[in-house]
Amino acid sequence: MEETLPLPNEACFVYILKGEGQPLSESENIVAKPEQVILSLCGLTAGSMISKQPKGIIDSIIVHFGKDLLHQVFQGTKPELWEDLETPVTQYVVQSASKSFVKHYFDGVLQLFKNKEALTENILKLKLKEIILLLLQSENAEDIKQIIKSLFSERTFTFKELIDAHINTTSSIENLAMVTNCSISTFNRRFKEVYKTTPNAYIVDKKIEKVATLLKVSQDSISNIGYECGFSSPEHLSRAFKKKYSVSPTIYRMNFSVK
């Protein structure tokens, strides 16, 4: 039986007080805008986005928390609206415009920090519980719920389950190694054991399968479909496609367009 892997157990949320739309993560389309909340599953992700910006450009409140702390705060129970994960989380960073009640929450937090004698451990635990419940009712709530579900989940997933869940959203071996909590060398070795091929070959094969699917249903040009699926040029696509399907993308499309 294949060994299962634990889910990430650290998270972080950032509330933007001041920002002018500076890009924080181009790959995730995350920008710094006032009254926006950024929630990330890996504790360093959201905080590191802010820390890389020049000082004084962005003001924010950053809170790091993990599974152990949440279990203390909720006293071993699960928050409202919670249910266990069915599949691994694939959206690790979520940005949401604040609803009015979230804005009022952070206004209150700011007042607490201005009156530090009120910052007791019990108060901080209550405030953490409050923001978790509020975030579950925010815009992008489904993506936020997935992150919260993960932090409370006792589930584990196999190496293959994690790869299959992420392979269509990233072609980066570094990212795939990260979600399986492996070094690059360990990841490459385990990948070959499970899939009987290399990560690069498998990723290319998945891209070709996506091209083939789009050729059947899309009217877009073959070159645009190739670029959309991650091929660097029409020639690159044609070589890889012929190797798998023994015909060119053009002939493949024509075969499916014939009535």
TrEMBL record:
Pfam families, alphabetized: ExsA_N, HTH_18
SMART domains listed in its UniProt record: HTH_ARAC
Domain HTH araC/xylS-type: 157-255
Swiss-Prot/TrEMBL keywords: DNA-binding, Transcription, Transcription regulation
GO MF annotation list: DNA-binding transcription factor activity; sequence-specific DNA binding
InterPro entries: ExsA-like_N, Homeodomain-like_sf, HTH_AraC, HTH_AraC-typ_CS
Signal peptide span: none
TM region(s), chain numbering: none
SUPFAM superfamilies: Homeodomain-like
Protein known as: HTH araC/xylS-type domain-containing protein
Species of the source: Flavivirga aquatica
